[in-house]
Amino acid sequence: MAKTNASPAQNTVANNDVKTDLGITFKNVKTQSVNIGGTDFYYRKLGDNNAGVPVIFLNHLGATMDNCDPRIMDGIASEHQIICFDNRGVGATKGKTPKTIAEMAKDARAFIHALGYEKVDLVGFSMGGFISQEILLQEPQLVRKAVITGTGPAGGEGIKNVTKITYTDILRGLFSFKDAKTYLFFNRNENGKKSAKEFLARLKERIENRDKKMSFSNLQRQLKAIHAWALQTPQDLSVIKQPVLVANGDNDRMVQSSNTHELSKRIPNSELIIYKDAGHGGMYQYHEAFVKSALAFLAK
């Protein structure tokens, strides 16, 4: 597959990289920026600079950096440096969100190169898992290992319904005075409701210097990108040679769990984890188990 090269016209890091101080966690780590071709991309970096290959976290639909689970970020940062960021048009990063997953991946690659990394690990959730697949196909030499959760392949079963499900659950959230992620990410049984409440509470731990909210117009552009991904011709994932950990809940109503099994079959060097009694946000419901599995996988 032909590789495309990201060559931003201007790359300047706004803050000097320093080893993370003791006591710094995801709820209080500073926000930094790097200029890529005239656009400031905002990011947060947590963990020891000298902890080997850095981990890039690729987030879900509509998510800013404040939607990263602090338990997962802190957990992975205990052994690795982990970086989350606002891609183009998301949160504090200005511009229009691309209308294709491939373009989002090109922006993510430009961000990685702007930070000076030649090799990274990826952790991608939901739409971030789509982007992770594209990065693996566009520039395979950039990635050592990948963890993709709550996600599916291009053209995957039921992914075309994400827009409808998202709008429906946004309305459910408005009428019930609940965050839409309560419905999108978790089962509506006692375990799911409890996990949703705990997860949403964790997202509020950061009090100061919170990220800017994403605009509705850019959310719509993300949904168009996901819909295009759903209708896309299936890609040849057999060319992915890196180790890939694929995980999901057993009852994902956003990106059907069957897609997780399909990814595991089509990616040669893959491992599969299915969390019982969990939905799209299985990694959040079972965050302790997920961190343990992710660290073990990355350490192999």
TrEMBL record:
Pfam families in the record: Abhydrolase_1
Domain AB hydrolase-1: 54-282
InterPro entries per the UniProt record, alphabetical: AB_hydrolase, AB_hydrolase_1, AB_hydrolase_fold
Protein name as catalogued: Pimeloyl-ACP methyl ester carboxylesterase
